[in-house]
Amino acid sequence: MSEKLRVGILGATGMVGQRFISLLENHPWFEVTAVAASPRSAGKTYEDAVGDRWKMDTPMPETVKKLVVRNVLEVEEMCKDVDFVFSAVDMSKDEIKKIEEAYAKCETPVVSNNSAHRWTPDVPMVVPEINPEHFEVIKDQKKRLGTTRGFIAVKPNCSIQSYAPVLTAWKEFEPTEVVVTTYQAISGAGKTFKDWPEMVGNIIPYIGGEEEKSEMEPLRLWGHIENGEIVKAESPIITSQCIRVPVLNGHTAAVFVKFAKKPTKEQLIEKLVYFSGEPQKLELPSAPKQFIQYLEEDNRPQVSLDVDYEHGMGISVGRLREDKVYDYKFVGLSHNTVRGAAGGAVLCAEFLTAKGYITRK
């Protein structure tokens, strides 16, 4: 790409906003030219607005330190200076819906990390290796919004990334029932151990809203477009528990699966390691070369060893074995703030750019 697209980040001072900032440093296609946050941060430099709350393990990029933070509510001012925005705002669901639609109606595409629009019928919720065809619903969304280039696209919840791609790879064997328990890192709540010392050596067996998302969002990924809207799949039946554990980054899932057409273990592993999608074909900048790795060792995947596989954009799977009640069981691991949040949104934006949905103003 000869000239980089100008990117704005809404909610730039929070943890996911910071992850966007760090992932976009030296990006070959995108350049962060504007950052926005709440009115209390507006007018400060990004460096001053974040202060000692920088939570990434790499330094704050020099290119953003002196950017003046804008008021996220001043939509037209922000839209003048960017080609599209990433959204990671921390507001109520209704407020997020309203602000993201305002940016879209200002003819500025919105690629969102937030959950507010995940069930809006004409808003695509996409993992690019799984359901990129859902982006086709954007044309219907534009009709509703009355826009020519503005739209909203979202990525799904971080909790499903460690098992939904695996089940997608096994689609031909027709999974019918899935039991999943996710062990979720504290960064999923926007926290570090410094912010949340009571999580050290602790487990909390409840994360608000996560179980519903874990059970329903995969079905939307596997759904289809009908009359300009996305209709979710009816199967498999998924039941889940979501537990907060004392890990900084990395969501682990323990999963049990029943199939209509029971495969061999060798067939399942083969499907995993050869599974790829459009991002790999297009060689998108953030796409993992190998989306899913299978680890033979009994004690893998481990957060400390595997969470950064493919720069955090890949999925690690291990402990696949037959089960006495279900057909098979396995353990999956994904990086919740990279593949599961900002990185997944960046990959969506790369795909949308490659396909001409996002262009220069």
From TrEMBL:
<keyword id="KW-0521">NADP</keyword>
<comment type="similarity">
    <text>Belongs to the aspartate-semialdehyde dehydrogenase family.</text>
</comment>
<feature type="domain" description="Semialdehyde dehydrogenase NAD-binding">
    <location>
        <begin position="6"/>
        <end position="138"/>
    </location>
</feature>
<keyword id="KW-0560">Oxidoreductase</keyword>
<dbReference type="InterPro" id="IPR012280">
    <property type="entry name" value="Semialdhyde_DH_dimer_dom"/>
</dbReference>
<dbReference type="InterPro" id="IPR000534">
    <property type="entry name" value="Semialdehyde_DH_NAD-bd"/>
</dbReference>
<dbReference type="Pfam" id="PF02774">
    <property type="entry name" value="Semialdhyde_dhC"/>
</dbReference>
<protein>
    <submittedName>
        <fullName>Aspartate-semialdehyde dehydrogenase</fullName>
        <ecNumber>1.2.1.11</ecNumber>
    </submittedName>
</protein>
<dbReference type="InterPro" id="IPR051823">
    <property type="entry name" value="ASADH-related"/>
</dbReference>
<dbReference type="GO" id="GO:0004073">
    <property type="term" value="F:aspartate-semialdehyde dehydrogenase activity"/>
</dbReference>
<dbReference type="InterPro" id="IPR036291">
    <property type="entry name" value="NAD(P)-bd_dom_sf"/>
</dbReference>
<dbReference type="Pfam" id="PF01118">
    <property type="entry name" value="Semialdhyde_dh"/>
</dbReference>
<dbReference type="InterPro" id="IPR005676">
    <property type="entry name" value="Asp_semi-ald_DH_pep-lack"/>
</dbReference>
